[in-house]
Design goal:
The structure holds two protein chains of two kinds.
Chain A (H helix, E strand, L loop, with lengths): L2 H10 L4 H13 L4 H16 L8 H63 L1
Chain B lengths: L26 H39 L4 H15 L11 H14 L7 H14 L10 E2 L5 E2 L3 H35 L2 H103 L2
Antiparallel strand pairs in B: 1-2
Helix pairs in contact in B: 1-4, 1-6, 5-6
The chains are: A mainly alpha, B mainly alpha.
Chain lengths: 121, 294
């Protein structure tokens, strides 16, 4: 499905007027990027969840809670991994910053010495 | 009008009168998903800001040593060396002849021909661009036509697969860079400065690519987990709705059957009453007949 086909489907969909318009505005102003698709999915899900007519049983709630706990655990893993990656990047970037700062000082020092040598000669 | 917009069909969720609000079994999950999104956004912002800061420092140093001429090289080559090369000690420290000699020297020491004029400009620009506030941490790459295109998700699974190796390589190159920097600080040769500048540019580039890929891989993984969770939630909702519809149809059929049974009963009763009436009429007719019988 391309962007235009999606627009047509959204126009004919049973979403609320407000959410339909929100999605159409997003599509008008943006390419169909990963982030835009995620935003649209969120809006559609919001519309689905706004239907409170469904009466979930106790078993349903157990199933929902178990799936939510599993997803939360997986997200914890992703966040931990990303945190570790960024700690590594920060450490290496700080090393880089230190190296450049030291180089800068070295060049400064050398310039001062060169000028001094120049003056003295 | 959708179901949700039809007030007659929409179920009541009273709360203004103090009655218990209908429980939302998905609220906890939704909140957790939102938190994950926020976490990734925060990582992006933090990473972008320290690349800006550190890239700024690197770019400043670059600009000082960009053309590989002038003060930095003069300082690097030291006053003695410069004197031997016949520089006049002009006010600006390096005169025209000195510049020519320095440029020639720079060309001479640079075996790869990299740190000369234009190329060093490009690298300086790349580092400058790297710390530009508009730097795009969305994992986009440039296609052959020079347009930004969205990276495919397999780029990030590749990244995840090879991450340990990349971490090792980056750590190793960081150590090598440290050694090159120490060498330069001691020997102060133009060659040494070239090596360090190359190392800094490469390391910056590696770290920028690594962090962009890590963030995008994290974002995509989180999105996948969210998709899976949503699919499960919607499956539960769909199954419950289907069961609800079936129960309602069953109830309708049951009521219809009960109504039919009741109607039949009433009809049977009416048939019985009708027969009783007929029989009574016959009996009454007999009575009447007896009155006048002779």
């Amino acid at each position: 499905m391309n962007k235009q086909e999606l627009i047509e489907k959204i126009k004919l969909s049973p979403l609320s007027d407000e959410r339909r318009q929100k999605i159409l505005s997003l599509l008008e102003q943006n390419d169909l990027t990963f982030d835009i698709k995620e935003q649209i999915k969120d809006i559609i899900q919001e519309d689905i969840d706004s239907d409170t007519s469904v009466q979930f049983s106790a078993e349903d709630k157990k199933e929902i809670d178990a799936a939510t706990a599993q997803a939360a655990k997986e997200l914890d893993g992703v966040e931990m991994e990303l945190g570790k990656d960024m700690d590594f990047v920060e450490k290496e970037m700080n090393n880089l910053e230190t190296i450049v700062a030291d180089l800068d000082k070295t060049v400064d020092q050398d310039q001062v010495e060169a000028i001094r040598a120049d003056i003295q000669s | 009008m959708t179901n949700n917009e039809n007030p007659e069909l929409k179920p009541q969720t009273p709360d203004a009168t103090g009655e218990m609000k209908k429980e939302d079994p998905f609220a906890v999950g939704r909140e957790r998903m939102a938190k994950a999104g926020q976490f990734i956004d925060n990582v992006k912002t933090k990473t972008s800001s320290f690349f800006s800061r550190i890239g700024g420092g690197i770019s400043k140093f670059w600009n000082r040593t960009k053309n590989f001429g002038g003060e930095a090289v003069a300082a690097t080559l030291s006053a003695d060396v410069l004197a031997k090369k016949g520089y006049n000690k002009a006010e600006n420290f390096i005169d025209e002849k000195g510049h020519q000699i320095i440029d020639a020297t720079a060309k001479g020491v640079n075996q790869a021909g990299e740190w000369i004029g234009e190329k060093s400009e490009k690298i300086a620009d790349a580092v400058t661009a790297g710390y530009d506030k508009t730097v795009d941490f969305t994992g986009k790459k440039i296609d052959q036509a020079g347009n930004w295109v969205e990276a495919k998700s397999d780029q990030f699974s590749e990244f995840a697969k090879n991450k340990a190796e990349q971490v090792k390589d980056i750590t190793k190159s960081g150590i090598e860079l440290g050694k090159d920097a120490a060498f330069y600080a001691k020997q102060k040769t133009a060659e040494g400065l070239v090596a360090v500048k190359n190392g800094v540019a490469n390391q910056y580039g590696r770290l920028e690519t690594f962090s962009k890929n890590a963030i995008e891989a994290g974002k995509m993984k989180a999105a996948q987990i969210k998709d899976n969770w949503r699919a499960k939630m919607n499956a539960v909702r769909e199954a419950r709705l289907q069961a609800q519809v079936k129960a309602q149809y069953d109830q309708a059929v049951q009521r219809e059957n009960a109504a039919l049974a009741q109607a039949k009963q009433i009809l049977d009763q009416a048939a019985f009453a009708t027969k009783a009436r007929e029989e009574l009429a016959q009996k009454l007719s007999l009575m009447q007949g007896l009155k006048v019988a002779v």
